[in-house]
Write a structure and sequence with these properties.
Blueprint (H helix, E strand, L loop, with lengths): L2 E5 L5 H4 L3 E4 L10 E2 L10 H4 L2 H10 L9 E2 L1 E2 L2 E2 L5 E3 L1
């Protein structure tokens, strides 16, 4: 199981938790981060949609290349937005 952690800025603890870091927004991220600005994306809409723009990027650039089931983790009826988790 792979767990992705979506963030607007580099956070060192993400790697220590064995999460796959994914960067959204205008910041520049290290090479080990997935960056929503690459490939087919709607990163220009990140200001309005936040981390959801990464979910679009993931769907268009990662899921179209494989046949896997995807589950979005919800906590108490609200999707985690500050550190969204996407389990594949």
């Amino acid at each position: 199981m792979k767990i992705y952690c979506i963030t607007h800025e580099k956070m060192d603890f993400i790697e220590y938790l064995n999460l796959i870091p994914a960067g959204v927004g205008n910041a520049n991220f290290p090479s080990n981060y997935l960056d929503e600005k690459e490939g087919e994306n709607i990163s220009f809409k990140n200001r309005n949609y936040g981390e959801i723009s990464f979910h679009y990027w993931f769907w268009k650039n990662r899921l179209n290349k494989c046949n896997s089931n995807v589950w979005f983790v919800k906590v108490s009826q609200f999707m985690i937005l500050t550190l969204s988790l996407l389990i594949v």
